[in-house]
Specification:
77 residues, six-stranded mixed beta sheet, OB fold (Dihydrolipoamide Acetyltransferase, E2P), mainly beta
């Protein structure tokens, strides 16, 4: 087996799927921010990015996009 084939097989086994679903709603506290000012919170251990928020905000959010290791959300108006 070639080295690249072995790496491709092992990559698939160790990936964790994001337990969040698009449309899920949560109440969260923003605990951190990216360098460009997007708020960060963790839900079920997964990083969730929430634009237009700052550290210390308490918001109700809706998940808008999920990836393997993180999610994106928007605040509820």
């Amino acid at each position: 087996m070639k080295k690249s084939q072995k790496n491709a097989k092992s990559r698939g086994r160790n990936q964790v799927r994001c337990p969040l679903q698009v449309g899920d709603q949560y109440e969260v506290d923003i605990t951190d921010a990216t360098p460009n000012g997007v708020g960060i919170t963790k839900i079920k251990g997964f990083m969730t990015l929430v634009p237009n928020t700052k550290v210390g905000d308490h918001k109700t959010i809706i998940i808008t996009k999920t990836e393997h290791l993180n999610a994106e959300a928007k605040t509820v108006a």
